Amino acid sequence: MVSLVPNMGHGHGPGWNRPESYAFADSIINSGEPWGVQKSIGEADGVATVRLRSDYPIERGTLVYTTGSGYTGDLDWIEIPVDTLRQVPDESWSITTTLPEGTTGWFINGYANGPEGEL
Known about the structure:
Elements: H1 12-16, H2 19-31, E1 36-44, E2 47-54, E3 58-66, E4 78-81, E5 84-87, E6 92-98, E7 105-114, E8 117-118
């Protein structure tokens, strides 16, 4: 499980202030597995798709992308809503969106409402 939070900051404090950290720890302790897992990720013809398994319904998704190059910490990252979010038959979630022209790097975040708040 990966959690990439735009503009989160660095150090222990920012991680302690995020509900994802506690939801992850609780799920590992209680079930031995993370509450959410990326099943696949890909891009074809300018369309990005991510499939996720989640113990909580995915409520929204965002595309985080850049059109720059170089050191990732120096790039401008833009966050926008995704085009399509849907639950698929195997109880996972599919998030699909068109990549803006000139995109050089991207990732998609899926957000769920868990017991700790938005994850």
